[in-house]
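mind reviewing these tokens:
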Amino acid sequence: MPISSYIKETMSSKSAGAIRKMFEEGLRLKKMYGEDSVFDFSLGNPDLDPPKEVQAAFEKAAALKEKNVHGYMPNAGYQFARDAMAEKTSKEQGVAVDGSCVIMSVGAAGALNTVFKAILNVGDEVIVPSPFFTEYRHYVNNFGGVLREVPCKSDFSLDVKAISDSLTEKTAAVLINSPNNPTGRIYTKAEIVELTNALSSHAEKIGRMPYLICDEPYRAITYENKEVVSTFPLYKNSVIVTSFAKNLSLPGERIGYICVNPLCNDKEEFVAACIFATRILGFVNAPALAQRVVSYSWNAKVDYSSYENRRNNLLSILNEAKIEHVNPEGAFYLWCKVPDSFKGDDVDFCEHLKRFMILAAPGSSFGGSGWFRLAYCVSEQTIINSKKAFLSAMSSLEVKE
């Protein structure tokens, strides 16, 4: 067999890479029918330009003439970059963090793969509330781990009892994403406290303390003054993985970091393992230029109100089209229910929407069959122009019935 059986089976499935496939289909359709005729809500690709501070940081970094400016640095990243990310995390977590807790990474995806390489033995389990970011399945499987998908409650809040009941001696970590992709849900402090208490109780019984991994690339993008809970004061074995893809609109630069709670039981060993994993996974180090840029500009002021406006405009359209949905509290996604006439077949419904030039991601890719995701980090004009298409797509169902 020329390629891995797992890769062959996975990439051939209907839901595999559905987001990217739909995005690429959008590019094809736009060439055929024009940009204004295609309504591509498939990919979480921020359309806000990076703030002026980031642009200035790129110019400053590119102008450096010092020797070895494009050379290797320690696998964990430049010390100045680690210190800057420690300062950022200290402000967010309300806990004093220094650069020894930080490993620079190739985006949040690289950060998660590095952490899983560092902590997972074959057969270890990572618990994730579903729905969740589709690539988590692959990231855990990459290292022989098992992703245990635990459904959220009907309002997409954490079902801590279900998570607690799923904890075993094989549980290496619980992975949460708040604001959540795809639902936009922000987990409350009460939910996080209940979760951390359950993890601590489990650790006392089993003798193995799972990591609480917080995937936070959307932390800054919240609405109605909602705030993301800080986990470092609540649970010592907590880890932040994040990037600047969404908050600073730098997805293509692939820059992020890992930060472990300074009170973590095995802080030094965890950091050393992540540094080693960064090297042997072939990342070697996070991009040199991007490390400088985010070190200079991580605290740039960004106005996310346009995302909130787009959310509200799209919500209005969906309400008129009678598409059920969750009201997102953060990030830039709408989680929508497939109409009853499709009997929960989200892939088929996304194909139906495509006939009206609407590109959406099927919920089964996210562990949420019967739902679909719309990414509204697109131009306001795209949202406005999509109204007729949504109304037509839904009215055509009434004709069929």
User: Anything to note?
Assistant: The chain has a mean pLDDT of 94. The two ends are 47 Å apart (CA to CA). The chain is about 40% helix and 15% strand. Residues 380-400 form the longest helix (21 residues).
